[in-house]
Amino acid sequence: MDLPVMPPVKPMLAKAVARIPEGMHYEAKWDGFRALVFRDGDEVEIHSRTTKPLTRYFPELVDGLRARLPRRCVVDGEIVVVQGPRLDFDALLGRIHPAESRIRMLAGTTPADFVAFDLLALGDTSLLDTPLHERRAALADALRDTREPVFLAPATRDPDVARQWYDAYEGAGLDGVVAKPLDLPYRPDERVMVKVKHERTADCVVAGMRHHKSGPVVGSLLLGLYDDAGRLQHVGVSASFPMRRRAELAEELRPLAMDSVEGHPWEAWAREEAHGTRRMPGAPSRWSGTKDLSWQPLRPERVVEVAYDHMQGDRFRHTARFRRWRPDREPRSCTYAQLEEPVGFDLADILTPRPHPR
Asked: Where are the transmembrane segments (predicted)?
């Protein structure tokens, strides 16, 4: 492979803001795997946001990229899986599997699409220093005749349209809006774009914690909600505290610490065989590798209000943000019933041409 922009390259990033700004280029924020695609003739490489190779996991997408992209290019975009009228991040996670036979089977049953939104190189020319509006025009021209599984991300310069997207597209599994200055060059691994994501709050039970890698302070809080059968289900974590706050939380939660997991609602997680059926706080994954995921059980007696963007099945899609303790709430009152469900929106109305049927 011999391209004017060669891997490894980290993608340009966005910082979070509260409102959609004026006078920018706007796109929907896709909920998938951020990916850079490098194509040089028959050679195609797909790299993740952290530059890890994803090529082997998406053989059907490699074929589609080879058929739909210009012969020599570097494209920034998002790998997504469509199930029915919306994106399915759980199905996308399932595509990362070590077994070759499983990869081939999933390529047929849950095929992936690629939504392109930026162009880093075309032919023999690097576009890293080219203003965004020129890169976008070149990308739109290069993909003017594309079809599944490669799509051009819808874009607008009208902030009113962007606000409509922000409200409407969530029902199709998208999670906000990205705004980019029109004259912005491509700056790898720099937070020079902005993103506006949906945020809601929920009252959750704190039923466990993990220690921070630096020592005996709180690394993250394990959050739970009660289901209709009265079982406390793990829904995610709250993390990203200042170091002083981590120490304060450790002191606040010390009286709730249990000597063992016996009698805890998540007692089954201590048994290795339980990890095979569902994702649990102490279970390793293909993403965590050798990372220490051991946890300290806490008596489920304290309630915390957290902010979250949206759900992935029965869990928070991203790390929840600590807002405040809720001493006025009873843990048993913290159920799934409090969560909002966005109005449905058919993904086929966003991507044109229509995605292949599932």
From this structure: none
